[in-house]
Amino acid sequence: MLAALVSALAGCPRFLLWPARPVPIWFLEAAVFICGITLWSFVLAWHAPYTGRPVLFVKWDGKSFLAATVGGIILALACRQWLDPALRQQLPEDYPADLIHWLATVPFVLGFGQLFLTFAPFDWLMRLCRSQWVSVCLTALFGVGVTAMKLHPQAGTIPPMVFAGLLAARFVGGVLAVVFYLRGGLALAWWWALIFESRLLPELI
User: Fold this and answer.
1) Closest of 161, 185, 200, 159 to residue 72, by C-alpha
2) Within 10 Å of residue 48's Cβ, how many Cβ atoms?
3) Predicted confidence (pLDDT) per residue in 95-112, tens digit
4) What's the whole-model pTM score?
5) Residues 39, 26 contacting (CB under 8 angstroms)
6) DSSP characters for 168-180?
7) How many Cβ atoms from other residues are within 10 Å of residue 161's Cβ?
């Protein structure tokens, strides 16, 4: 429950800055908290037994840290070059308007976004199919599916190549997130995500 509470609190700044909230903030916080209880139970109950690795921390070696850093930078630069310019015009609400919004978004991405898209699905799939690479690929495909469903109403306004590139980047990012989760636990996966999210900072500082 403590982990779910932290995830809910991590989303609070973003919810406060959401101008078109369809429901009260207490409802959003309660929804994240209740979902977080279920999702964190998947992680805490199944990750260690089915992967043989601890959840919170695996001692990083230099290669893992370097791989996460370089992987995050490469994917971030690719998105900045080929995806973000077009998507910022088509989906401005998905991009932080200023540094305050970025600082409010990042804790939510780390505290709940990765839990929902990476950690919990992967550990649930590991328990279900007992195959690490099948679980990695299915987790990445889950992220692709969520992205496609989210963008379906705007799909006609996004250039097909940009839409395909976004889904491809979501798949690659999903695979990398799980790989770093396995190699360095939550901390290394969070570090990789922070590097990736930092691609938006140059326009905000």
Assistant:
1) 200
2) 14
3) 999 999 999 999 999 999
4) 0.95
5) no
6) HHHHHHHHHHHHH
7) 11
